[in-house]
Amino acid sequence: MITSERPVADVQSRPDRRRIPIDQVGVSDLRYLVVVADRSERPQPTVARLRMSVSLPQEVKGTHMSRFIEVLNRHREGVAMATLPLILAELRRRLGAASARIEVAFPYFRERRAPVSGASGLVDYDCVFAGAVDEAGIDCSLAVRVPVTSLCPCSKEISDYGAHNQRGFVRIEVRAGPDEVGIDELIEVAERSASSPIYSLLKRADERAVTMRAYDNPVFVEDVVRNVATELQADRRIAWFRVEAENDESIHNHVAFARVEWARPADGV
Amino acid sequence: MITSERPVADVQSRPDRRRIPIDQVGVSDLRYLVVVADRSERPQPTVARLRMSVSLPQEVKGTHMSRFIEVLNRHREGVAMATLPLILAELRRRLGAASARIEVAFPYFRERRAPVSGASGLVDYDCVFAGAVDEAGIDCSLAVRVPVTSLCPCSKEISDYGAHNQRGFVRIEVRAGPDEVGIDELIEVAERSASSPIYSLLKRADERAVTMRAYDNPVFVEDVVRNVATELQADRRIAWFRVEAENDESIHNHVAFARVEWARPADGV
Amino acid sequence: MITSERPVADVQSRPDRRRIPIDQVGVSDLRYLVVVADRSERPQPTVARLRMSVSLPQEVKGTHMSRFIEVLNRHREGVAMATLPLILAELRRRLGAASARIEVAFPYFRERRAPVSGASGLVDYDCVFAGAVDEAGIDCSLAVRVPVTSLCPCSKEISDYGAHNQRGFVRIEVRAGPDEVGIDELIEVAERSASSPIYSLLKRADERAVTMRAYDNPVFVEDVVRNVATELQADRRIAWFRVEAENDESIHNHVAFARVEWARPADGV
Amino acid sequence: MITSERPVADVQSRPDRRRIPIDQVGVSDLRYLVVVADRSERPQPTVARLRMSVSLPQEVKGTHMSRFIEVLNRHREGVAMATLPLILAELRRRLGAASARIEVAFPYFRERRAPVSGASGLVDYDCVFAGAVDEAGIDCSLAVRVPVTSLCPCSKEISDYGAHNQRGFVRIEVRAGPDEVGIDELIEVAERSASSPIYSLLKRADERAVTMRAYDNPVFVEDVVRNVATELQADRRIAWFRVEAENDESIHNHVAFARVEWARPADGV
């Protein structure tokens, strides 16, 4: 093993003269074992993809990348919307930066019971905890991507029988008060807005129920985002949202999508 | 620019004493603009992912990677099942190797007319031209992955109305005589085996037709592979095939799949 | 074949009462064979991924998805920054929409000559043509992602010999006057900002030159984005840019990145 | 909620007359939270991608997909090479099948200490537990994909200074006695065969050590697979292996790879 017999220069801390401040510098595509906590459920181990960065003033040549991992190591057993402010504050302090950002993307698992048999299995939902802090304050958001069934209203109406349906995804991202909204709540909003929830384990009686429920609740991608939007606008905890619905069309080899973004007006209506 | 003022050593050609012959050494994940030709259609430009390799005898340290690109450059305007033998022979000769392999994966586009309106649009099919040559001879295969609609027979039968359906894929790989079977033929076999073909452009009258056709032709993944297998076994040009059907289940967040592999018996039955 | 014997209802055109206007509704993940044209090069066939959408007023239930494909069919032989305004205008008119958007992502290939031998091969660059139009006007941007070699200045300085280096990517997105900036120019800016360009075909004398050039030009991700930013700020055609550098670190299993976004001040300095 | 008021037909159990037995039918692309156990380490929670299937005789129409999830639910807290035989036996029994297969792909995390500072962080390794059982017996394999640094011997020798290096991956798959070989052992074999291990957290003194270690140990992809092969051939526990080395070339936009497959001769030499 080579040992370090001489002092190793701190190249990163040297001055830079190009006068270009850097908005974000850090690490991305980092896969890490973490424990995530949602407000209403038990903490859950999962595998996250992380992106962490800080700003760099124009006069400094480089940041110290290893410190991102050190901060993550201290918090990886408790990654939550509630702990993002602590992690961000520590990133900012440890890196000596004016601003810091973090995005934690991970699959979150819930046990789901089939509607008739009650048979249960895990369903995976892609989630993102995101946060940014600077002198002006902190800004966090929570995103959940929910697989659903969608059944086409047009196909149903114009056909003598049947209706094309498919796997769809509803992605909801919200800004709310600190840890006020849970992953579970957003999953449920998404599922109510589509033709049917999906499950990992269905027995035949469940399949019958799910098939007929979807046929009874046809929705376009436009309907899905409007259903979600209506519900979130009525929820005074939500300050901002973006919702996107995607259908992996069963009659096409492309996706149909719709998107709405909304911010609660200043008077809170 | 640095110029090369001294002779550059050929490190790769040096002897190796570990006595480990190498099955395959080469380049992969190479993205290249090529022109592919199918037996029955006009040549088509497309973007391919290539994997090319040769064997290396135990006494040689390394291969010469740049020669793979040189061979590809000479053939990129005419990549076809019919030209694979030429490309393979050139790889083998140029690299001085006992055996050579190539895999060319690319999207292939066909213009498809909607069933009622006749409106037309391109549909993309993932294809692979694969070949290997050694002292014993040459072995080539053609693979096509075809998007389809599949509608569940169980869901249809047990429900009072509706039936879950979804986007599925049928992947067929065949070995046949030199350039005897076309991409188009395999696409058609796949589509006949599923509930309905898919299209990029459907007007409402087409959507009605496709919805009802799928409802009239329910298939499990098991049915799809059996339908394909029945047809390919009856086609005397086919010496071997592997077929895999996948359904991106609309009621689940996972895939249902089935696979059959078959080789024509030596007596050709 | 089922024929459409009855009038098929236009479900999408019906009124909607939820009072939620939709920002974007359309198709995505559509793979299509197109011909792209850059300002300075011959048109080039390639395989694009497209996302096209329009806005939908609150009182209309759904859009007409097939029309996106119809518009694309008419323009697929000539997709260029110069033709985006025409395509957008046609999307808007054909869909009867207040605003329309398009994103065309595709690999663009250039023939690159090795620095010493002059041997040539294609290199692939991921590009995006993006545009949006509404009553207020049109907004277009061009993005190019360029593979490069980056060599770490810290590793070079603190080590007695060697320096870790790796494949990196420089993504530059710009807003400029209509078709004023070419893909080639952005590729060259990115390559000048890194330790060395990359090539698909290098002979040994080239490999020697590239190795030493990279060692002579060490850069952090911070340096890469600053080098790009300095050059683009000095180019008066550029109204806005975002540049991101990524290193697929050879000593880590994650990515190091830096990002700068900049808009030319109103007084044009 | 729709309740199931009538008996639901078991469509899958009906006879099929096409006379095509199916090799594999089941579920794939199933993402599940599991606990994996390696022979030498504490059990570890992780997120797996699973593929499970059974064979289906020619006279049966379909399999019962929900049972795969039921079997997984019972074993998800203890997925290990040591428990694969139990899971396979249960799949076979529960599905009434002649043969059954399972593949469990997952990231496995190890804490790695930096070589000089001792600073520690997690590194992720993609692993696969695979097994198949039929009347003839059981066949299991373990695969590990290890990120490494590789430094090019040719570039080092022909250049006055520097040497291109990059992130590489060494994938080792082995068949051995039941649970005889651990993930950790394969990771260490892979790392010894490359220019240097990689780490998630390195301080400057570590970076110096890693840079110089890589420069002192240049390897081609051919060397990497030969180094692994030499070591595994000498290990009498190993009955079969396949090793593949990949370099994400820092001077190219493609991958260089080499592959060796080997089975221990019947006389065990």
Give a brief description.
Four copies of one chain form a homotetramer. Chain A has helices at residues 66-75, 84-95, 153-158, 183-193, 204-216, 221-233, and strands spanning 22-37, 44-56, 79-80, 100-113, 120-134, 137-151, 165-176, 196-197, 238-248, 255-263.
CATH superfamily of chain A: Urate Oxidase
Beta-strand level of the residues of chain A, as a percent range?
A: 35-45%
CATH level 1 name of chain A:
Alpha Beta
Oligomer: homotetramer
- What is the name of the CATH topology of chain A? Urate Oxidase
What's the overall geometry of chain A? elongated
How would you classify the helix and strand content of chain A by structural class?
Answer: alpha+beta
Q: Outline the low-pLDDT stretches of chain A.
A: none
Number of strand elements of chain A: 10
* Element order of chain A: H for helix, E for strand: EEHEHEEEHEHEHHEE
> Major sheet of chain A, described briefly?
10 strands, mixed
Give the helix level of chain A as a range of percent.
10-25%
Most extensive chain interface and residues per partner: A-C, 48 and 48 residues
How far the N terminus sits from the C terminus of chain A, by CA atoms, comes to 66 Å
The total number of structural domains of chain A is 1
Q: Rg of chain A from C-alpha positions?
A: 23 Å
